[in-house]
Amino acid sequence: MSVVRDLILQADDELRYPSGGELKSMVDFLSGGSQRLSVVKTLNGNEKKIVDEAAKQLFSRKPEYVAPGGNAYGQKQRAQCLRDFSWYLRLVTYGVLAGSTEMIQNIGLVGAREMYNSLGVPMPGMVESMRCLKDASLSLLNAPEAALAAPYFDYLIQGMQTST
């Protein structure tokens, strides 16, 4: 769930105290808390802007998605698509806060293929959607913040690519 929890549990499983390197990792993680909070505040505070920009990018790259017969054709389908953008953005913020991809994996990737396949949503389209979400999000962050957030988007994108 978080870097600190994972390191403590690992040491406990091995019946030992955390090593000097593990303690340093904890200090490094904790000292980056204000930067993680800044990233999350920016992403949360700009959710609508990010989702709208990601949708604009996606539908300009893949206009067939909003054309008749496309997965985002019509008010209801488009709203569901945008809802998923928001949901995945929230999962990325959980990862940034915790310094862990566990929530992204457990909530966002496990079962994603089955869910989207059952809805007739092709996984390559979801991968492209997450790339657009990443681009829209990182454009609002400064370079160090973008460097902090990018791996969580990349983990999500990579996980969806292996689901195809």
* Rg over CA atoms: 18 Å
Count structural domains. 2
Choose one word for the global shape: elongated
In the CATH hierarchy, the third-tier topology of the largest domain is known as Globin-like
Describe, in plain words, how this protein is organized in 3D.
Helices cover 76% and strands 0% of the residues. With 164 residues, it is mainly α. It folds into two domains: 1-31, no CATH class; 33-161, Orthogonal Bundle (Globin-like). The longest helix has 24 residues, at 75-98.
Primary descriptors:
elongated; 9 helices; 164 residues; Globin-like; 2 domains; mainly alpha
Which helices and strands occur, and which strands form pairs?
Layout: H1 3-13, H2 20-31, H3 33-45, H4 47-61, H5 75-98, H6 102-109, H7 112-118, H8 123-138, H9 143-161
Helix pairs in contact: 3-5, 3-9, 4-5, 4-8, 5-6, 5-9, 6-9, 8-9
Short synopsis of the structure:
The chain has 164 residues and is mostly helical. It contains nine helices and no strands.
